[in-house]
Design goal:
The complex is a heterodimer of chains A (402) and B (358). Chain A has 402 residues and is an alpha+beta fold. Chain A contains 14 helices and 14 strands. In chain A, the strands form four sheets. In chain A, strands 6-7-8-13-14 form a five-stranded mixed β-sheet. In chain A, strands 1-2-5-4 form a four-stranded antiparallel β-sheet, with no helix packed on it. The N and C termini of chain A lie far apart (74 Å). Chain B starts with 21 loop residues before the first helix and ends in a 27-residue tail after the last helix. The chains are: A alpha+beta (402), B alpha+beta (358).
């Protein structure tokens, strides 16, 4: 590393067992003024306990409104290497699977045109190329598309959908999370690259209720795998767990949230009519218990972090949908109805979850053409202020209907 | 006009199929069972055979050098196939079980750790912090490094009652969506925005700025003939919504910015429903480079959880069983007025029963 750069505070973060991002950035500092000045500015942040980045800035590639986050140093004279330090979001492959040959191509592009630093991956799922100059954006974009890659989303658009490992390496996957993610990303390129929504719209696909992508907490629209029929039981494999001395009562039976498991010797019985598909017993007994055969996914809407009106979890809007043979037309139709209604009646910077809270779930369901179901609520309302829409009129007038 | 390749747009990502290991392709959708070989090593088996996964830690903020080292090992041990998890761990996908131990040795030699599976702390999901963000109240990468240096043994072992998910976000925007983690470390601002009345009229749209405030604390005003805004500071909760739409309202305040600790969130539906994190510690000082107050607070909670929770209880399930009063009691964390919610739906957190422990 360059001798003139002194980073005594950051150097403290080179100690200890966890891999050090400081050591890693330093490994690039000899070749890259950007990395060197990033370390310099970060050291100053550590001294002064504040960041030194300016508020965004509109930069991007021609014809796209998203995918690049403009970033400029507030101290460009002191740290000219990071006077521009833009982020490029690159759409990750479904499930974050790579071959070394493919990722090496991206890294070569990034070594030539940027800082050489990345986030693998960003919170939404994109590959994040961290730190480049405005004049490099178009060349990066050309080089990436030449190798078959494209940019992700940013701003008020569809953000890059992401998914769990799904059927690629998990026996619990109730639907093809990789296929749906690829399908939606390809189908909605315009919505992804040209921000036209009220605010951002994130989609995450998790193959089962373990929800490894945190769809229930982090996606405006969550697709979470679920099944309707019985948990599949292999009694012989269950007996092996008993024979190995596993505390079946403590680790499985007592932890079932609806008390629907009973065990008699080496035989397990599940009252499937009361099972809420929580996954605990299946997680504990791999091979002996498995998700059923009638598989699909639930659709949740509305999860988000606190900005603006507070954090929300998603809530169930479609309890069960099945896309046979990865034909996602029904899902497309739902998504487009939701976007159309949100576009028409939502306000600026209003996420879909806040929109539903404002206009009410009942109004939203009507707007997108769905029927109310007890699977959409924890309980019916407990307040009596009901907006009735049907009532009788006197003198033989027929019931009024909308 | 210069002759160059036609500019291509809207192609989307490459198809994932080309990145799948042949064993994964052969078992795609047909997996039967998974097993745990040892911390950081899993097996998945289907009709076509078994694939072994070796999981290692990553700082997430990684350079081409780190990634090329990882890929050299993927070429050497896993036929060039590897992936990342939703928590940014790196996973090598091995067909030969005899490659597991040499790979782990090489990973340790390059300075990373193998683990993060089952009843462990997995990689820490986090945000950009002072490395890249304009609204960060603290650094994220540095906090993660400092905390995980203290907790590394819980990454490389599976000795916790259940999995433990730690996340860091450097301001209330929560790009790391820490609001459903077992333990969340959240940077926060604690003073109202400082308005730059010289630049605001040119940089910001007044109606958008006024509308951005969830507490209606921002009003238009006129100073020396220029339209700008003023903030009712009693109503300001330092959320940063205004700064998001108006650069002339920065919140950074080195004297007052700091870190809060939140506990008990979960995503999974296993046993109990998903839960939000709840406030444990409202403020700890920003103390780089190693944030000793934060690391010791987090370690205290992790160790008490390890000692007191029952098998397969997540942090939130453990606290719900013993009660919040006991949580504050045994952790020695002071319960203050700041723990009482006062935003939307605050009432849902008030004790509306006599179910207290005495």
């Amino acid at each position: 590393m360059a001798d003139d750069l002194k980073t005594p505070l950051l150097d403290e973060l080179e100690k200890g067992p966890w891999p050090s991002f400081v050591t890693d950035i330093k490994s690039c500092a000899d070749k890259s003024e950007m990395c060197r000045d990033l370390l310099g500015q970060l050291e100053k942040s550590y001294e002064d306990k504040r960041g030194y980045w300016k508020h965004g800035g509109l930069v991007g590639v021609m014809g796209y409104g998203g995918g690049v986050i403009g970033r400029y140093s507030a101290l460009p004279e002191e740290f000219p290497g990071v006077s521009h330090f833009h982020t490029v979001r690159v759409n990750q492959p479904s499930g974050w699977f790579y071959t070394t040959s493919a990722l090496r191509e991206i890294l070569d592009i990034w070594e030539e045109h940027g800082s050489g630093l990345t986030n693998m991956h960003g919170s939404t799922g994109d590959m994040v190329l961290l730190g480049t100059r405005t004049e490099e954006l178009e060349p990066i974009f050309r080089a990436l598309t030449e190798k078959g890659w494209d940019l992700g989303g940013s701003g008020s658009d569809l953000r890059t959908p992401s998914c769990c490992v799904g059927p690629a390496r998990c026996e619990n996957a109730c639907f093809d999370t990789l296929a749906v993610t690829y399908d939606l990303t390809k189908s909605y390129q315009d919505e992804l690259h040209r921000p036209m929504f009220n605010y951002k719209y994130k989609i995450k696909a998790s193959g089962c209720p373990n929800d490894c992508t945190a769809a229930i907490a982090r996606s405006d629209m969550g697709l979470i795998g679920i099944w309707k029929d019985d948990i599949k039981v292999d009694q012989a494999k269950f007996a092996e767990f008993v024979d190995k001395g596993m505390d079946i009562q403590g680790a499985v039976v007592d932890l079932c949230p609806t008390s629907c498991i009973s065990v008699d010797g080496k035989e397990i019985t599940i009252d499937n009519s009361n099972c809420v598909k929580c996954m605990h017993c299946i997680n504990r007994l791999p091979g002996a218990l498995a998700v059923g055969d009638d598989k699909g996914f639930a659709v949740t809407l509305g999860a988000k972090a606190p900005i603006v009106e507070g954090a929300l979890f998603g809530s169930v809007i479609i309890p069960f949908m099945k896309c046979e043979d990865n034909d996602f037309e029904e899902l497309h139709d739902l998504i487009e109805r939701i976007w159309e209604f949100w576009d028409e009646y939502g306000t600026a910077r209003e996420r879909i979850g806040e929109f539903i809270e404002r206009i009410s779930l009942a109004t939203f369901l009507e707007g997108v053409g769905l029927e109310a179901s007890p699977k959409m609520v924890k309980a019916p309302r407990d307040n009596p202020y009901i907006f009735y829409e049907e009532y009788y009129e006197e003198e033989g007038a027929s019931a009024s209907e909308e | 006009m210069a002759t160059e390749a036609k500019r291509v747009t809207d192609i989307g990502p490459p198809h994932y199929d080309q990145f799948l290991h042949p064993m994964i392709k052969a078992n795609y959708g047909k997996w039967e069972v998974h097993g745990s070989i040892k911390p950081g090593v899993l097996s998945h088996t289907g009709p076509a055979g078994t694939i072994y996964t070796v999981r290692c830690a990553s700082p997430r903020l990684v350079s081409i050098n780190f990634l090329r080292n990882i890929m050299d090992l993927a070429d050497k041990y896993s036929d060039g196939y590897f992936r990342f998890t939703s928590r940014n761990n790196v996973e090598f996908l091995l067909e030969k079980s005899e490659n597991i131990d040499p790979l782990i040795e090489d990973l340790n030699a390059m300075g990373t750790l193998v683990g993060g599976t089952n009843n462990a702390i997995s990689n820490v999901v986090h945000t950009q912090g002072w490395v890249h963000c304009h609204s960060a109240a603290t650094d994220a990468s540095g906090l993660v490094k400092a905390v995980m240096d203290e907790l590394a043994e819980y990454f490389t072992s599976e000795k916790l009652p259940h999995k433990l998910r730690v996340a860091v976000a450097c301001c209330l925007n929560m790009c790391g969506a820490v609001h459903a983690s077992d333990i969340a470390i959240l940077g926060l601002h604690r003073t109202p925005p400082r308005i730059d009345n010289n630049t605001l009229p040119n940089q910001c749209e007044i109606p958008t700025t006024v509308a951005s405030c969830p507490n209606n604390a921002i009003r238009p005003t006129s100073i020396e003939g220029k339209t700008t805004v003023k903030v009712d500071e009693d109503k300001c909760m330092y959320c940063g919504n205004c700064f998001t739409v108006c650069p002339a309202m920065p919140l950074a305040d080195p004297l007052n910015d700091g870190v809060s600790i939140w506990v008990g969130g979960k995503i999974s539906n296993a046993r109990t429903e998903p839960m939000f994190t709840k406030l444990a510690i409202p403020y700890l000082p920003n103390n780089p480079p190693r944030w000793p107050e934060v690391t010791s607070a987090v370690k205290n909670i992790v160790e008490l959880y390890a000692d007191n929770a029952r098998p397969f209880e997540r942090v939130g399930e453990w606290i719900n069983r013993i009660g919040w009063e006991k949580f504050f009691d045994i952790t020695g964390i002071e319960f203050t007025k700041y723990h009482l919610d006062d935003f939307r739906h605050a009432g849902t957190t008030y004790r509306r029963s006599l179910h207290n422990r005495y």
